[in-house]
Write a structure and sequence with these properties.
Length: about 450
């Protein structure tokens, strides 16, 4: 009897359950297949948009290269990077087989004032400078007291190396002891371009420490550097450049960078640089040797950060496209509407157009303002377009709000160099969690 009751109950339950029509079941399966195919098509479109993304990336690189070419063109016309070496006394040998003797200063003090100005090459700004350098100190001539029979003290001369001799804007007069001697331009096989002058017969002051001083007015572009040839080398620079970049083997011992310029002081010992007071060769000071290893100074060029920031920002393009497509796709399911793949493609092109707008604007105005303008234009266009497709302002504004949040998040990442990876990882974790929550609310197997 119990078995009959159970069987009757099961039959009654089966009669109450709605039977799925074969046609309905077929339609449900067909809808699920179409939904899966649509998701694959959207993913394929996202990958396809990587091609124009790379094209925009190459355009950013091209513009950056053009800005560097503009700097090189102006440098060729104005004057290039300047490196000051010396003064150095040379005592030439009377025999070719015997090397010359080079006497480096015991003390080298450089006091410099550097004034910058902006030149324009097309739409690109190039920073150049004019500097007034005072060089002073003393030589210990005791090192030349007994040079030997192969050297003629009357032929001694002093020289100062200057990378681009075209940058000299005034005559150079070298004062040693109580004598003032005009310097002339020339070349040295080790230092390249130099200004030099004969010192006459040194035998009368041999064995003494003799003071020197001179003033060098030189203009250049991008960088001003020095070589610590003194037993003690001190350099003190002041400038109106508010964006200096100190580089080389030695950093300033003191620095003060303000909005109206900077002040910096270097102090380098011979123990640090490896130079001895008397040398038989300057080959290790050549531009391929210690002059590049031991040189120090400051870059005075205008930072072109907009290209680096454009490059960093476009790396997030695929993420923004994928998240926007996913949001539109979820909206399409919830609103029970159909959006054509071509319309997805148009949204993707609009998202990529943001980066060309950003690049174009950032070459003329600040990156932040450019980012805001390009973002507002892109978000407005996509929001209005989706509003026209969905016929409902609420989901369209929701997608616009999502884009606003994404662009804001990306800009914050661009400003966080040290913590960009940490903030990006946390942000992606939160975004993935939101997507998982949204997808859990969708009934994927409904017809």
């Amino acid at each position: 009897m119990t078995e009959n009751v159970t069987e009757n109950s099961m039959n009654a339950g089966s009669q109450n359950m709605p039977e799925m029509n074969p046609r309905t079941r077929k339609r449900s399966v067909s809808g699920q297949v179409k939904l899966g195919l649509k998701a694959l098509v959207i993913l394929a479109l996202s990958l396809l948009l990587l091609i124009p993304q790379q094209i925009i990336q190459k355009k950013i690189d091209e513009r950056y290269s053009r800005s560097k070419e503009a700097v090189e063109e102006v440098s060729n016309l104005w004057s290039g990077r300047q490196s000051v070496v010396g003064p150095i006394i040379c005592l030439p040998s009377v025999k070719d087989s015997i090397p010359d003797i080079y006497l480096l200063p015991a003390n080298l003090d450089i006091e410099g004032d550097v004034r910058t100005q902006m030149l324009h090459r097309g739409i690109f700004d190039v920073s150049v400078y004019e500097s007034q350098l005072g060089l002073s100190g003393d030589f210990h001539l005791t090192e030349l007291a007994n040079p030997g029979p192969h050297y003629d003290l009357s032929k001694a001369y002093v020289m100062i190396g200057i990378d681009d001799i075209r940058g000299l804007t005034d005559n150079v007069v070298f004062q040693i002891g109580d004598r003032e001697i005009p310097m002339k331009s020339g070349e040295n096989c080790y230092l390249g371009h130099v200004v030099s002058c004969p010192l006459g017969d040194l035998s009368g002051i041999m064995g003494d420490s003799v003071a020197y001083q001179t003033s060098v007015s030189v203009k250049g572009s991008e960088e001003l550097s020095f070589l610590p040839v003194g037993s003690v080398t001190k350099v003190h620079l002041t400038s109106d450049c508010a964006t200096p970049s100190f580089g080389g083997d030695f950093l300033p011992v003191t620095r003060d960078v303000k909005q109206d310029g900077f002040e910096a002081t270097w102090k380098v010992l011979a123990l640090n640089s490896g130079y001895s007071e008397t040398m038989n060769s300057l080959s290790n000071m050549h531009s391929g040797g210690l002059i590049s290893d031991n040189a120090f100074g400051v870059e005075l060029q205008v930072p072109v950060e907009q290209y680096q920031q454009n490059t960093r920002s476009i790396k997030y393009a695929f993420l923004i496209i994928l998240l926007t497509f996913a949001t539109v796709f979820f909206t399409e399911i919830r609103q029970n509407i159909r959006i054509h793949p071509i319309q997805y493609l148009l949204v993707g092109f609009a998202l990529l157009l943001f980066y060309t707008l950003l690049l174009s604007f950032s070459e003329h105005i600040s990156f932040l303002i450019s980012y805001v303008i390009a973002g507002v234009m892109t978000i407005t266009m996509i929001t209005v377009f989706l509003w026209a497709l969905i016929k409902d302002k609420r989901p369209a504004l929701l997608i616009g709000g999502l884009l606003l949040g994404l662009y804001t998040f990306i800009y914050i990442l661009l400003q966080m160099e040290s913590y960009a990876l940490l903030a990006g990882s946390i942000g992606l974790f939160v975004i993935l969690g939101l997507i998982m929550y949204i997808t859990s609310k969708i009934k994927w197997y409904n017809s």
